Amino acid sequence: MKPLHHLNAAELSGLLADRKLSSVELCTHLLARCDQYPGLGVFLHLDRAQILRDAAAADQARATGATGPLLGIPVAMKDIFTTKDQPTTAGSKILQGFRPPFDATAVQKLRDAGAIIFGKTNMDEFAMGSTNENSGYFPCANPWSPDHVPGGSSGGSACAVAAGLAPLALGTDTGGSIRQPGSLCGVVGFKPAYGTVSRYGLIAFASSLDQAGPMTRTVGDALALYNAMVGRDPKDSTTLDTAPLAPPAPRKGLRLGVPKEWLGEGLEPAVRDIIQRSLDLLVRQTGAQLVEISLPSVKYCVSVYYIIATAEASSNLARFDLLRYGKRPAEVGSYNLKDWYEEMRGQLFGDEVRRRIMIGTHVLSSGYYDAYYLKAQKVRRLIADELHHAMAQHNLDLVVGPVSPNAGIRFGECLADPLKMYLNDILTISVNLAGAAGMSVPAGLTPEGLPVGLQFVAPRGKEDALFSAALQFEEARGPLPEPPEAAIAACNAKERGLAR
Known about the structure:
This protein is α/β, with parallel strands linked by helices. It is built from 17 helices and 11 strands. The model has no long low-confidence stretch (mean pLDDT 95).
């Protein structure tokens, strides 16, 4: 039998249901593994005593007849979800020590389903970044290679699942922050359509783009986690009456659009080879029909995103001043308000957060609002309409292609060149701008041993086709290797500034 940390949530749930394993035993095993690899930099907070108390409560509930696919299963939580019994910092020093008085709706729904909240995972500060190097505390590692980042901003959640520290995790996706680290770490990452999962209790980066979603070992696990969170929430007026999905039946002959722009200039050859083999596999094994389509507005996605997202961030982050949230320094009385803001926000926001706040403030300022922000909103509509028009024109079920132009990003590359980090999101951003659903499914390994994901995209309402195609691809692809323990150990041993 495989080690517990290599089992997916469905397999673990079966063992728990058959009383061959207890939740306490499972959590004890995973906590020992977390202790074995602290140098991965996965967790910002891990309350072992609370985890074991919750696990014992889940075992007791099962003994009295409770059931469910998530009962007693650990779920690692990106540190952007508010949790009333654990700190929530959004990866930022300005929120260090902040304990919210309430749970995010997604967290509460998982608790109601019997899941164990298994720590708060590392992330780029306020979800601003694609490498996890912008964490206010320390960077996280990619368990496949000590020299590569796990992606971001949900890098800690991706690494937790890939390295076997937790079978399930939650992330958030504003411009690719679930799918991109999912691809780079070799796990499934699903960004639900906007409005299907509540954002209440999710510390906002860009409110019209943010979406919470699962990061898992299998597509089936992603479906179970998604179903536990989906639906209208009176605390979030953007949510819709979305019902959980039934397990999708295999659908042969799906029409899959392949944007020629996604396979063009800038795509790493090893990534192109894996994506092409994956598409060929879908054709052979499922009878899928590939249709080349054009999405010419893709070239505007990065520019539009970094106007709209930074504008919303500039507004959302104005509330963080260390007067209302976080631990206020004792010397507060010696400052006037202007000096306080300059000192505290200047010291405690990282470089990338300050950069995006300044960009967002600029594009919203008098004289620039029409030229930048208003124009970006118009192009956003064009990008969304273009995607929906292409699907209708060609009678498509889904759009498919790569997740990231690169199979790996080395530590330091994007810190030295932030524009390179922004461009790495070019294949995921359009999905957020359109409010569509997107999923990254592991597709294979490059000759260097780095994972690559295949991206499935569907408009809201076609999630059943997305999950059907993803499940069929996963079955046709077969099992993929786990990250080598030697690579995980090398990540653990490598100095990554964990003390800062």
